Amino acid sequence: MNQLTNKELMALREQNVPPGPFNVHPIFAKSARGAVLTDVEGKEYLDFTGGIGVMNVGHGSPRVVEAIKDQADKFTHSCFHVVQYDSYVELARRLNQLAPGDFPKKSYFVNSGAEAVENCIKVARYATKRSGIITFDNAFHGRTYMAMTLTSKVMPYKYGFDPFCPEVYRAHFAYCYRCPFGLDYPSCGVHCADYLEEFFMDNVPGDRVAAVIAEPVQGEGGFIVPPPEYFPKVKAICEKYGILFIMDEVQAGMGRTGKMFASEHFGVEPDIISSAKSLAAGMPLGAIIGRAEILDSVHAGGLGGTYGGNPISCRAALAVLDELENGLLEKAEALGADLAARYQELADRYEIIGQVRGLGPMMAMELVSDRETKAPASEQAKALVSRCLDKGLLILSCGKFGNVIRTLMPLVISREELDRGFSILDECLGGLE
After folding, report:
1. For residue range 194-221, what is the model confidence (pLDDT) as tens digits?
2. Where in the chain is CATH 3.40.640.10?
C-alpha cells in the first residue's frame, strides 16, 4: 500500500481498531534507531518513553537485530514443550546467575510481564499451599485478570471488568511525598513497613498469606521509590511468617535503574522475580526467576504455554544481556546522575514541579499547582505531553492523578540528544507557567 499520513492512518485505526487499546500520541512509526523515532511523515522525535520501558538497549540495537535475524534463519518456533532449544536453557542459566540471592535458582519463560506476574502468583500459592496475596496502593502489575486485580488504579485499568480475583489484599506503600499515614521520613521510622504486621490483624492472617508482591520502583503508580530501609523490613516480616517475597521487576529491571535488577539497590534477595519489557528489547518475553526449591515444587506440566520462551525472543534477550554486561550498566549509572541534576535544575526554576524522584535513570517529576498543598496539576501534565510532542519529544504521564511526568529514554542516548530533549522540556514547562 502507498505510504499514508498520520491523519489518514488515524482514520483507518478508528474504523478498524476499537478504542480500548488507548494511544498516547496520534502518530505512526516508520523507523527508529537508538533514542530517535521517525514517523511515517518523516518527522523525528526524541524518544523519552522507550516503548514504555522496553528499549533500554536502544531501538535497532545491532547486536539484538543480528541475533533475531540469525535465529529466524534457523527456525522461528518448535514449542519448548515439544522440541527444546539451547537458547532457552542458556538464558535461564544466565538470569539465575545475575539475579540477586546467594542460593540455587531456576527460571522459565512466558510471553509478557503480566503473564510473568500471573505465574509468580501461581507458583507462590502452589509452593506455600496458602491463598492470600498482598499487593500495594499505586501498584501496576498488568492487565490479565490476576495482574489487573493486583493493580491499584481503577480507571482505566479496572473499570467495568469486575469481579476480580479473590484473596488479594491491598496495603499502603511507602509514598513519602504523599504519606498515607500523614508522617514524615525519616522521623516516621518507616512505619509503613512495620504496619504490615498490623495489616495481618485487620485484613488477612499472616499464616494464610502466600506472597507479598511489590515493584522496587512503582512504575505506572508514579515512579515512587521507597526509603532504603523499607524493603529489608518488609522482607524480614515475610520471613517471620513464612511468606514469599516477590519483586515485580518488569519495568525497573534490566538496567533501568543502573543495576541489572532494581532489587540490588535495597540489598534484598527476592524469593521470586518477574521480568519482561527490556529483557528482550521489544520481542515478547517474560521471565519467572526464583529459588530452585520453590519453582521445583510445581508438578511437571503445571507451568508453560505454547509460545513461552520463543527461540527468537530468547536470542534477543541473550543479546540484551551481552549489551548490559559490556558497558551499558555503567553508562546507565552515569546517565542516572546526569538526569538527577537536570531534573533538579528544572525543579529549582519551576514552581509547578513539586518533587523530583527516581532511582538511577528511572526518573520522574510530580507536577503540582501548589507546593504547599501538593494539589495535583493533572491537566498541566497532559498539556506538557502534548506540547512536547509538537516540538519533537515523546514523554509520558503516570501516577494516581496523572500528574507525574516520567522518562524512560534508551540508555544509549547521547549527550547531544539529552541536551535537546531537556531544552524542549524546559521550553514547554516555561509555557505552562
Report:
1. 999 999 999 999 999 999 999 999 999 9
2. 63-324
